[in-house]
Design a protein that fits this description.
Layout lengths: L8 H31 L3 H16 L3 H5 L22 H23 L4 H36 L2 E6 L4 H10 L4 E5 L5 H17 L3 E5 L2 H6 L4 E4 L6 H8 L4 E5 L3 H9 L4 E4 L16 H8 L6 E4 L7 H6 L5 E3 L1 H4 L4 H13 L3
Parallel strand pairs: 1-2, 1-8, 2-3, 3-4, 4-5, 5-6, 6-7, 7-8
Helix pairs in contact: 1-2, 1-4, 2-5, 4-5, 6-7, 6-14
């Protein structure tokens, strides 16, 4: 292997293939590593990916590099139109994970008879990258959802009705980035069917889709998360079912329930009702002072809910409350798009 003059032409061709795919695998891993570092800020993932790169680099033998120009590559510079469609981190992660996996498979096959150690290394890292890809995508989805919850002040809650898809699209066109779907009556199969349609609509507008109460429907519809009431399944069980990539919100209206929800790992809290509301007729309004007191020390996003509309946004802002969840003021509006625009503008303006 050391004396190039004793190497057969076929071996040089194989070495050239191994060299090219070691480069591809390491380049793809570097893309994943940089996203894990700068995009996700996940040190554990960075360390794992960096380790894979170092192992492959250590086994990138000089003989492979020397074979690089043995045969002129007639296909150099070829590209594919799909490369221009990688316009989101999700697609970049998926395409580069595939690049790494494919390159490692080639190395595994062509090095088996020449360098069995490298073949085994390629096989081991390839299987590791299947898990790594899922972890990166899940973490990416969660970071995206957390960012939307944190950066957006208007949360729209919708319920089942005849023209719901049309209304929801208007709300999304108005700039709302968080939609929660309530489906209190009817058959589960219809609930799921409607949830899938709304989720597809939310994806179109890069918005979050949250399912109320039903962890199973959230999972089956591939929603971004679930919103739980105090009488629903507990947070820890929901997390086991949904996994780490999904958002879990909780309704709470007293210090005990709020503290427990935070301790159990919820991602945001809905507190209310603030004002009288037809949606929760049996619940006594907490009022602005109580909402302010309950939420002042919470370190996760908190949305006030209950009877909120464009006419009382100012009073909420005067009490330091800027994140709101709204039901009827948007759903029952003559023009949901315009109503959403007005409310968002009110929330963003300083008093």
């Amino acid at each position: 292997m050391e004396n190039k003059n004793l190497i057969q032409p076929e071996d040089l061709q194989i070495f050239q293939i191994i060299d090219a795919n070691l480069d591809r695998a390491r380049e793809g891993l570097r893309v994943l590593e940089d996203w894990a570092r700068f995009g996700l800020g996940n040190q554990d993932l960075v360390i794992r990916i960096k380790n894979f790169r170092q192992i492959l680099g250590k086994n990138h033998l000089e003989i492979y590099k020397l074979s690089r120009n043995h045969i002129e590559d007639q296909c150099k510079g070829l590209s594919h139109i799909e490369q221009n469609n990688r316009k989101s981190p999700y697609k970049v992660i998926s395409s580069n994970s595939a690049r790494v996996q494919e390159a490692l498979r080639v190395i595994e096959e062509f090095s088996r008879n020449h360098n069995n150690k490298l073949s085994k290394i390629a096989s081991e890292i390839r299987y590791e990258t299947y898990t790594l890809e899922i972890e990166l995508l899940n973490f990416n989805n969660r970071k995206r959802a957390e960012s939307i919850i944190s950066e957006n002040n208007l949360y729209s809650i919708i319920d089942h009705r005849e023209n719901l898809l049309e209304i929801t699209e208007k709300i999304l066109l108005g700039g709302v980035k968080i939609i929660q779907h309530r489906y209190k009556q009817g058959k589960d199969k219809e609930h799921l069917k409607e949830a899938i349609k709304i989720n597809n609509l939310c994806k179109k507008y890069n918005s979050l889709f949250i399912v109320n109460d039903r962890v199973d429907i959230a999972l089956a519809s591939d929603a971004d998360g679930v919103h739980l009431g105090q009488d629903d399944i507990d947070i820890k069980t929901a997390r086991k079912v949904l996994g780490s990539s999904k958002i879990i919100g909780v309704s709470a209206n007293n210090p005990t329930d709020i503290n427990k929800a935070i301790k159990d790992g919820c991602d945001y809290i809905g507190v209310g009702p603030v004002f009288p509301t037809l949606t929760k007729k049996c619940k006594k309004p907490l009022g602005l002072e109580k909402i302010k007191a309950l939420t002042k020390d919470i370190n996760i996003p908190c949305f006030a809910i209950g009877g909120i509309n464009k006419l009382n946004i100012d009073s909420l802002k005067n009490h330091g409350i800027r994140k709101v969840a709204i039901v009827s003021a948007l759903l029952d509006s003559i023009d949901p798009k315009e109503e959403a625009i007005i409310i968002l503008k009110e929330l963003s303006h300083e008093n």
